[in-house]
Write a structure and sequence with these properties.
Rossmann fold; 9 helices; 37% helix; binds magnesium ion; 10 strands; 286 residues; 6-stranded mixed beta sheet; single chain; alpha/beta; binds adenosine-5'-diphosphate
Amino acid sequence: MAILAFNTPADAETGDHAAERMLRTGSGKGRIEGRDLTMRFSSKKGDVIALENLDIDIKPGEFLALLGPSGCGKSTLLNLIAGILKPTSGTLAIDGNEIKGPNPGCGIVFQHHSLFPWMSVLENVAFGPRNLGHDDPVGTARTFLSLVGLEKQSKAWPSSLSGGMQQRVGIARALATYPPVLLMDEPFGALDAQTRSIMQEELLKIWSKFKITVVFVTHDIEEAIFLADRVVVMKTLPGGIKRDVTIDLPRSRDPAIIKSELFNTYRGQIFELIREETLKVFGSHD
Ligand code: ADP
Ligand code: MG
């Protein structure tokens, strides 16, 4: 177990105090505002309206989960926020600045790690800060590897690490540019249940220290409730928001909370919302 435990920023500090710097800069930033967002994909088979007239507001430091059945537009919304996709219409801004392209203000973690296989773990994490011309990218990378408990793996190749460790490197890499927003697309979806549960807890520890805005895509109801301040349940195509559920569970959360009555109530309520949407997909094939 020890090898899976992340260190806290306090005991992870090294030379450049990057984590402390992030603690200061993360607070108060990371407001996301989307208005009347429509995303239409055109293909040979015809057009797909992945999102239609969607409005979304995410507060600085909020942990928001996007939940919904497969194909409902979760990744599309995440990629719009990341600036990887451009909306067909509508506006999207972070801290009042319109998103015009891939932006360093968003760290991204995907389901399958996207580490560079030809670079060491340390170089992977140093890549972002180096690219942005930050001082001491290697020192920063060491700090963030310590944060996720992987300082001993700094010289390893990504391929030699377990899936859980690769995702932790991915998190370190995403945080190393001090982004006010962390976007995560089913980041623990490929991990076994035990590792996944520990990663969820450790992610919450990092989030509560850094006060960073997190948008976390998942199709796992329990994961969404356990992690989030608010669960946005999405509609099937054309995608939009079906319901916004505020999760009033106390912080800090530990896994025993999933046995609580309130957790159960949220689980039942959200299960019904998703079931309605999934049935619509089945119905459309009749
Ligand atoms: P989710 O992440 O919720 O599973 P996505 O956002 O990936 O869903 O996709 C939403 C819809 O948009 C799906 O019907 C998908 O097939 C379609 N889609 C996504 N990306 C593209 C693309 N690049 N070209 C065409 N259709 C796409
Ligand atoms: Mg997806």
